[in-house]
Specification:
This protein is an all-alpha fold. It has helices at 3-62, 70-94, 100-128, 132-144, 146-162. The longest helix has 60 residues, at 3-62.
C-alpha cells in the first residue's frame, strides 16, 4: 500500500472518529439539559410554584371587585401574601440547576418574583400610609410584572420545545 493511500485512509478514519465523538458529545450534552429541565419542572420548581399560586390566590381573593376593601387587603398582604411570597423566592433561590440553560430560566423566575414581591411590599406600605397614588402605582406595577413571568414562561417553553419535552404552562397570575 502506498504512503498516499495510507494517509488518505488514516485521515478518513480520524475524521470519522472526530465526527462520531462530536456527535456523541452533542447527544450527551442535550441529554443533560433535557434531564435537568425535566427535573426542574417536575421536582424542583413544583413546591415553589405552589407557594406562588397560594400567594396569588390570596391576593385575588381580596382584589376581585372594582371596590377594594383596603383593610382586608392590608391584612392579607401582611399576614399571608408577603410572607408566602418571600418564602416562594427563597425556595426559587434554593434551586440549583445543573445546566446553564435551566439556570437562566430560574434566574428569570427569581427576577420576576422579586419584582412581584416589591410590588406587594409597596402596596402594603401605601396602604399603611394611606397613600392612594403609591397604591395605584404598586397595583399597576403588579400588572406590569406579569410580562416578566410571561417572558420566563416563553423561554421555558422554547427550551422545552428544543429539548423535545411537552409541558403545560399555567396562565395563572
Amino acid at each position: 500500500m502506498s504512503d498516499r493511500k495510507r494517509n488518505i485512509i488514516l485521515t478518513a478514519i480520524t475524521l470519522i472518529i472526530v465526527l462520531a465523538s462530536y456527535y456523541l458529545l452533542r447527544i450527551s450534552g442535550d441529554t443533560a439539559v433535557r434531564d435537568d429541565l425535566v427535573d426542574y419542572i417536575n421536582n424542583k420548581v413544583t413546591k415553589a410554584h405552589q407557594s406562588e399560586l397560594r400567594a396569588m390566590d390570596d391576593y385575588d381573593s381580596v382584589n376581585k371587585e372594582q371596590h377594594i376593601d383596603k383593610e382586608a387587603l392590608l391584612e392579607k398582604l401582611t399576614s399571608d401574601i408577603i410572607p408566602t411570597y418571600k418564602s416562594f423566592i427563597e425556595e426559587l433561590k434554593g434551586i440549583k440547576p445543573k445546566t446553564r440553560k435551566v439556570e437562566k430560566i430560574n434566574e428569570l423566575y427569581i427576577d420576576a418574583a422579586n419584582a412581584q414581591y416589591d410590588a406587594f411590599t409597596s402596596m402594603s406600605d401605601a396602604l399603611k400610609n394611606k397613600d392612594e397614588k403609591t397604591l395605584t402605582a404598586a397595583m399597576s406595577k403588579l400588572d406590569e410584572n406579569r410580562q416578566l413571568f410571561m417572558k420566563m414562561r416563553s423561554r421555558l417553553a422554547r427550551l422545552a420545545v428544543r429539548e423535545n419535552i411537552k409541558i403545560e404552562i399555567s396562565d395563572k397570575k
